[in-house]
Design brief:
heterodimer; A: 115 residues; mainly beta; 2 helices; 14% helix; 39% strand; B: alpha+beta
């Protein structure tokens, strides 16, 4: 019971992908971007704890960095970053009112990992 | 407005409002990322061709399909193949003030079109171009003449514009025989001309679209291929029927739009 009354240690979530929807009407860009109305960009956030589990999609270097951090906190932990990105297509009107369809790379986070 | 981009949960509480300068800089950074110098401010009447909307739908569906495919396949694409394809599609309407009806006699309609392609950035590599022309169904009584209802459409590039009392010097780019029982867009390959104008800096004198009508063509038959505005067009119909030049190019950045060859 005493243990239960202790203030809970705040658990930090592990590195993962979080939802982030960018709505073009929110930024007033829907007057020149014809389609899509917005897009799911996502972002990466969370801890890269020692030891790094497989599902955290790390590299050998990230494992080494995390190991060193566990004995020397001056060395930062591996960072939670996008590891896989995909493009989106935008249909928009340019300054001459000409219609352009363009593919922009690395706009959507598909996967996150500790790097 | 730019503050709307920042996710609600990520916004720092009690942070002072961003100054207008900071918001402008934020927007400029995004526009630069999109390859634009300034924020476009199109008029309400700006028209989006249905073809471009259809292309967007096709490409978006194709991208989604590729995501699944990418997860299954680890085979990389060669750089050469990527370079030969496009990641940008631009559409152009011709300048109606320069439109020129070269001739319109019983057997043939010839019209000149000039498309201003100066908005294509110099660093962009045009891979191909197509000229799309709409033809509208003509209802006919069947006749015994086997050639009835056929029109030949010839697309020429103007190499040297016409001098007084002289015909322009042209070269044939594409040709097609069509029958007027159907409403349909026809797409003609005009890549050689557009590549000459954009990549080799040759003067753009435009195209000549020549429609050769059936021998006995009269009245409605002549307006089957929609190369010009009609007195009877409603204000909405002509903008969606007028000839459309579409260029496919690569800006040297990023991935290609992949469904080109499927179409």
């Amino acid at each position: 019971q005493a243990r239960a009354n202790k203030p809970k240690k705040k658990h930090k979530a592990n590195c993962k992908r979080h939802s982030l929807y960018v709505d073009f009407s929110d930024v007033g860009w829907n007057d020149w971007i014809v389609a899509p109305p917005g897009y799911h960009a996502f972002y990466c956030q969370g801890e890269c704890p020692f030891p790094l589990a497989d599902h955290l999609n790390s590299t050998n270097h990230a494992i080494v960095q995390t190991l060193v951090n566990s004995v020397n906190s001056n060395i930062p932990k591996a960072c939670c970053v996008p590891t896989d990105l995909s493009p989106i297509s935008l249909l928009y009107l340019d300054e001459y009112e000409r219609v352009i369809l363009k593919n922009y790379q690395d706009m959507v986070v598909e996967g996150c990992g500790c790097r | 407005g730019c503050a709307g981009l920042l996710p609600e949960i990520g916004r720092r509480k009690n942070s002072p409002h961003l100054s207008q300068d900071a918001l402008d800089a934020f927007e400029l950074r995004l526009l630069t990322m999109f390859g634009l110098k300034q924020r476009p401010s199109p008029s309400k009447s700006a028209l989006v061709p249905q073809y471009m909307l259809d292309l967007f739908t096709t490409y978006s569906a194709n991208s989604a399909e590729q995501k699944h495919h990418k997860a299954k396949s680890t085979v990389g694409r060669s750089a050469d193949r990527s370079a030969s394809r496009a990641n940008t599609v631009r559409s152009f309407h011709h300048d109606e003030s320069t439109e020129e009806l070269t001739s319109h006699h019983s057997g043939k309609t010839t019209q000149r079109f000039l498309f201003n392609l100066s908005s294509i950035p110099g660093e962009e590599f045009v891979t191909s171009a197509e000229l799309r022309i709409y033809r509208e169904q003509v209802m006919t009584n069947s006749s015994g003449n086997s050639s009835a209802g056929y029109h030949r459409i010839n697309i020429h590039e103007i190499i040297k514009p016409a001098l007084p009392f002289k015909e322009p010097i042209t070269r044939l780019l594409d040709t097609r025989l069509v029958q007027h029982g159907l409403s349909k867009w026809e797409s003609f390959d005009v890549s050689p001309a557009v590549l000459r104008w954009t990549m080799e800096a040759h003067a753009n004198h435009g195209f000549v679209v020549e429609v050769v009508h059936p021998g006995d063509a009269e009245g409605d038959y002549k307006s089957h291929v929609r190369v010009s505005r009609s007195l009877h067009d409603s204000t909405e119909s002509w903008p969606q029927m007028r000839p459309l030049l579409v260029t496919f190019s690569h800006d040297g950045k990023g991935h290609v739009l992949h469904s080109r060859e499927k179409r």
